[in-house]
Write a structure and sequence with these properties.
With 415 residues, this protein is an alpha+beta fold. The protein has helices spanning 2-21, 32-53, 76-97, 112-125, 129-147, 154-182, 190-195, 200-218, 227-233, 236-261, 271-290, 294-309; strands at residues 57-65, 69-74, 318-319, 324-329, 342-349, 359-371, 381-388, 401-403. The protein is 53% helix and 13% strand. The strands form 2 sheets. Strands 3, 4, 5, 6, 7 and 8 form a 6-stranded antiparallel β-sheet that branches. A two-stranded antiparallel sheet has the order 1-2. The radius of gyration is 22 Å and the shape is globular.
Length: 415
């Protein structure tokens, strides 16, 4: 419980910072970033303590829906995502501290920055449907206002309009999801939902609604249209938060609903995330390679990375889609290694006209877990990433050495 109170104080500091900044102008707005960084450090320390200790804390505030209140709960799942989120907030705040106080601070951005950070943290500790949706909408509106900060630019207005439409679609889908979870009795508190999970048919509809609601915020294809437009429109440090942090809040929302509130999963629940995730990863990577605008490249890189998250099965393995294959090769000889051995990842596509080719040797290390024998029951190649090659150049989508397979030259790599 003390940890949750400390988090509440840090969130209060962010809220007060936003309120005070809203009535200030000029260089005085610079105070927002040091306070945001300090609050994020406090929140991150609390999250780390909860994650390492394995404990949890809960509280019910006398606000929100009648007879239900406003439930907050900090457990290991929310603590893990909290560390990711607050790490991003700290980095963005440090970037903001370097702004020219005379020219680059504006009341259209700085007051909304701590509000955005507070809203993302609130989503993680929300423990009932009202608290979750309130925090989710606060996050959406704060980020929308940051996107439209340069409202005199027609492209920014277009990006903000599309983002607002996609955010509304996502919220409506989440309303259906939580309605299905609450059931006829209207049990909107998450503890009530856990005690009485929905029936299989309702659970399937809730899963689809959660995938749409969270996928639209996370940039899951085909719900990604707003991301490549909103990122160039937003200020750089806000763009980084939306790309590296807010999309992870969407992943958290899906994980919370699918693995915590829906009860024991059916075998087929993993299929929609796997299919959409694989499609998102492949198309996001191709768009990133083809685009010339750096911010849009980062947006597509985010889409690709979010897609990679979804194909994991319940055993923690990644599964290769039907239209592709993965080969793990010895870094010295480029020969395929045996199951269980680590090597360079080669991604193979069956699409001969795909860009940049359908044999891609990456600088990522992985190991093949098995062929057709994953404990989850799915057939095909299952594998796990082990990290980057030591001393590899840091790049957003990996340092790719690509070749195009030529007719009559076998299955090797050709330079």
């Amino acid at each position: 419980m003390p940890g949750l109170y400390v988090s509440g104080v840090a969130l209060g500091v962010l809220a007060v910072s936003a309120a005070v900044a809203a009535v200030m102008r000029g260089p005085a707005l610079a105070f927002v970033y040091p306070l945001s960084a300090l609050a994020a450090v406090v929140l991150g320390v609390v999250d780390l303590h909860v994650l390492l200790s394995g404990g949890e804390a809960a509280i019910r505030l006398p606000i929100g829906l009648p007879t239900i209140g406003f439930h907050l709960r900090l457990d290991t799942l929310s603590a893990f995502f909290g560390i990711v989120i607050n790490g991003g907030v700290i980095a963005a705040s440090l970037y903001g501290m370097g702004f020219d106080r005379a020219k680059e601070l504006t009341p259209r951005v700085e007051p909304l920055f701590p509000l955005f950070a507070a809203a993302m943290n609130l989503v993680l500790i929300a423990d009932d449907a009202y608290a979750f949706l309130f925090s989710w909408e606060l996050m959406s509106l704060a980020s929308w206002a940051l996107v439209v900060a340069r409202h005199t630019d027609p492209e920014c207005r277009r990006a903000a309009h599309l983002y607002l439409v996609m955010a509304a679609i996502g919220t409506v889908a989440l309303l259906f999801a939580f309605g299905g979870l609450a059931g006829p009795a209207g049990g909107y508190a998450f503890d009530t939902v856990r005690a009485d999970p929905p029936q299989p048919m309702v659970a399937a509809l809730v899963l689809v609604a959660a995938l749409v609601g969270c996928g639209s915020k996370g940039g899951l294809i085909p719900l990604h249209a707003w991301l490549p437009l909103a990122h160039p429109a937003a200020p750089s440090h806000v763009s980084a938060l939306m790309s590296g942090v807010m999309t992870k809040v969407a992943i958290y929302g899906f994980v919370r609903i699918a693995f915590d509130l829906l009860g024991p999963p059916d075998w087929w629940w993993a299929l929609p995330p796997i299919v959409l995730g694989a499609m998102t990863a492949v198309l996001g990577l191709l768009y990133a390679v083809l685009d010339r605008d750096l911010k849009r490249v980062l947006a597509y890189s985010t889409i690709e990375n979010v897609g990679v998250i979804y194909p994991d099965c319940e055993c923690g393995n990644k599964h290769v889609p039907a239209f592709a294959e993965v080969v793990v090769r010895n870094p010295l000889t480029l020969e395929p290694v045996a199951v269980g051995q680590q090597g360079l990842v080669q991604v193979c596509s069956v699409l001969p006209t795909s860009f940049p080719g359908f044999l891609v040797l990456t600088d990522d290390m992985a190991e093949i877990i098995d062929y057709d024998e994953c404990p989850c029951g799915r057939r095909g190649t299952s594998f796990r990433f082990a990290g980057r090659v030591p001393k590899a150049e840091v790049r957003g989508c990996g340092n790719l050495e690509t070749t195009r397979h030529k007719h009559g030259q076998g299955n090797g790599l050709h330079e």
